[in-house]
């Protein structure tokens, strides 16, 4: 989870009232955070990934003012009009199609402010921006640039400028090779013939998103007006990040102005800070939390959490701030009411009915399989059910299927449900490649190949003499004690070497596969020794064991 470093004096200035450090240490965890390192001038706070609006001291101060009831209800930020236009050329559609923008004037820059702005930018890049692939932020001094601005894709060698942190002119390809940020984020533009660029009316370069800004627009202590550009592959992500940054700047006294972003088929004015409305039923709140509060109390708790609340009977029409992209369902509002109400006030209750449980049959069967695998000298590992498309399919050399998460994942490594345990085991070997061989590991876990959970058993063995014969003996050693009749048939499967792979079958039903992994698969996971592997469907094994 992101850790935010906050200067105590800066936070107190933004709060507008003096609160002792000891008191803050008690209050902040009640808002849904963990406090790490603390000294007399600074504290490190760890916030949940679903609250990117708290990734800055400005956002924390705004939330604290509500929680302490110093300033409750929806915070309204006046937005002025400007004559600034940003024209989006269709050439960016393939590489990075979305951009939004904003202008914040009359900002007073301080050391605290510059540090907070840079830290917030990087935290948003890492989380909401998925390491800049999904969204990236450009922050510019507006003083030396002239609108209208143009966002387009160009040949990498056709434009040169001095990137931030350097003194020499480079073209875009050189930046990716020579600049530290270029080397770090070149992967975001891999495979594209043209790269995105933002220019002003004099063809001066503002930014090469998502890599680096130009030195022309460097933000300093003398900066008064800030121009924001946010580019990405997801319009919701760029809009949310813009709202978070613009309102944080407004918390410092800045005056927000809209920018007209002109796409090929429409024009939009951003930022748009109009709150969204969501109806919340009081009965739903009380039933979810197990309490009995009035509609006035529920509305008061929402206002304490910086929502607007309009009451009509037992229905509260909640005004959700534009920077709260985490509010997707009424249950999210219930959670905020619980935070305001105070988790320590909830009374624990014993279950009303006395029941006796027993393990499910599949769980007992998995336990027996674990004992068999341990008996063969394998170590058990536990890995996450979430994986990535690249790991599950590309690295394994198999055709992908649609198992991507509907909601935006927190990281690229956790973007889909796994259909196989083997990639997770190979990743574990990758993390332990510095250790001595042989290494033999297994897992009994859940996969989701066809929209329902399927328990599987998989194992891998890595050492110079790992072979088809070794894994065939292992698979037969697993099946024989279970008393399951089976046949072994030759099979071609992309993850395995051709001629060294087989399937385990009963009649027309396939129970699993085993063999020697293909050298390309081994290389894809940064491994170098032969690997024998198998994967079996536990539920099918159990059904046939019961029949016998």
Output the CATH topology of the largest domain. Answer: Phenylalanyl-tRNA Synthetase, Chain B, domain 3
Major β-sheet annotation:
11 strands, mixed
* Helical percentage: 25-40%
SS strand fraction: 25-35%
At CATH level 2, the architecture of the largest domain is 3-Layer(bba) Sandwich
What is the domain total for the residues?
4
Query: What average pLDDT do the residues reach?
Result: 91
The rough form would be described as globular
Please give the number of β-strands: 28
- Give the low-confidence spans: none
Rg estimate, integer Å: 28 Å
CATH class of the largest domain: Alpha Beta
Question: CATH-wise, what's the superfamily of the largest domain?
Answer: Phenylalanyl-trna Synthetase, Chain B, domain 3
Q: If helices are DSSP runs of H or I spanning 4 or more residues, what is the number of helices?
A: 16
Helix/strand structural class? alpha+beta
Distance between the termini: 50 Å
Describe the structure.
Helix content is 30%, strand content 27%. The radius of gyration is 28 Å and the shape is globular. With 548 residues, the protein is an alpha+beta fold. The protein has four domains: 65 residues, Phenylalanyl-tRNA Synthetase, Chain B, domain 1; 192 residues, Phenylalanyl-tRNA Synthetase, Chain B, domain 3 (3-Layer(bba) Sandwich); 68 residues, Phenylalanyl-tRNA Synthetase, Chain B, domain 1 (2-Layer Sandwich), CATH 3.30.56.10; 187 residues, Bira Bifunctional Protein, Domain 2 (BirA Bifunctional Protein, domain 2), CATH 3.30.930. The strands form six sheets. Strands 4, 5, 6, 7, 8, 11, 12, 13, 14, 15 and 16 form an eleven-stranded mixed β-sheet that branches. A seven-stranded mixed β-sheet has the order 20-23-24-28-27-26-25, with helices on both faces. It starts with a strand and ends with a helix.
């Amino acid at each position: 989870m992101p850790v935010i470093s906050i200067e105590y004096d800066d936070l107190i200035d933004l709060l507008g009232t003096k609160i002792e450090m000891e008191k803050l240490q008690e209050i902040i965890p009640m808002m849904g955070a963990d406090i790490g390192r603390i000294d007399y001038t600074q504290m490190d706070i760890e916030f949940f990934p679903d609250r990117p609006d708290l990734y800055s001291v400005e956002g924390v101060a705004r939330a604290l003012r509500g929680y302490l009831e110093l300033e409750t209800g929806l915070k309204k930020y006046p937005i002025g009009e400007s004559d600034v236009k940003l024209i989006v050329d269709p050439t960016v559609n393939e590489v990075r199609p979305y951009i939004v923008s904003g202008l914040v004037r009359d900002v007073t820059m301080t050391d605290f402010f510059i540090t907070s702005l840079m830290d917030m930018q990087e935290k948003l890049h890492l989380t909401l921006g998925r390491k800049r692939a999904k969204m990236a932020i450009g922050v510019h001094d507006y003083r030396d640039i002239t609108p209208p601005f143009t966002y387009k894709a160009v040949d990498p060698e056709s434009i040169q400028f001095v990137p931030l942190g350097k003194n020499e002119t480079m073209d875009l390809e050189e930046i990716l090779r020579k600049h530290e940020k270029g080397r770090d984020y070149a992967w975001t533009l891999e495979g594209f013939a043209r790269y995105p660029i933002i220019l002003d009316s004099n063809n001066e370069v503002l930014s090469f998103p998502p890599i680096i800004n130009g030195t022309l627009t460097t933000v300093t202590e003398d900066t008064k007006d800030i121009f924001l550009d946010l580019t990405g592959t997801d319009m919701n992500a760029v809009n949310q990040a813009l709202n978070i940054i613009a309102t944080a700047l407004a918390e410092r006294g800045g005056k927000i102005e809209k920018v007209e972003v002109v796409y090929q088929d429409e024009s939009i004015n951003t930022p748009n800070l109009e709150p969204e409305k969501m109806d919340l039923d009081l009965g739903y709140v009380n039933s979810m939390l197990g309490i009995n509060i009035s509609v006035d109390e529920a509305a008061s708790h929402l206002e304490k959490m910086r929502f607007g609340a309009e009451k009509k009977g037992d229905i509260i029409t909640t005004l959700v701030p534009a920077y709260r992209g985490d509010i997707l369902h009424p249950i999210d509002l219930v959670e905020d009411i619980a935070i305001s109400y105070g988790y320590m006030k909830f009374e624990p209750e014993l279950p009303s009915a006395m029941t006796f449980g027993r393990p499910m049959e599949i769980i007992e069967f998995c336990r027996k399989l674990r004992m068999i695998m341990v008996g063969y000298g394998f170590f058990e590992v536990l890995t996450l059910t979430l994986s990535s498309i690249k790991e599950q399919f590309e690295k394994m050399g198999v055709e992908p299927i649609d198992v991507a998460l509907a909601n935006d994942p927190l990281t690229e490594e956790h973007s889909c449900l796994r259909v196989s345990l083997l990639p997770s085991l190979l990743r574990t070997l990758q993390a332990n490649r510095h250790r001595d061989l042989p290494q033999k590991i297994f897992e009994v876990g859940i996969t989701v190949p066809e929209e329902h959970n399927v328990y599987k058993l998989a194992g891998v063995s890595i050492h110079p003499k790992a072979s088809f014969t070794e894994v065939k003996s292992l698979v037969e050693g697993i099946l024989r004690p279970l008393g399951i009749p089976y046949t072994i048939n030759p099979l071609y499967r992309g993850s395995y070497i051709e001629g060294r792979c087989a399937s385990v079958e009963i009649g027309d039903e396939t129970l699993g596969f085993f063999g020697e992994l293909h050298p390309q698969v081994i290389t894809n996971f940064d491994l170098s020794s032969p690997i024998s592997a198998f994967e079996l469907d536990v539920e099918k094994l159990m059904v046939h064991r019961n029949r016998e």
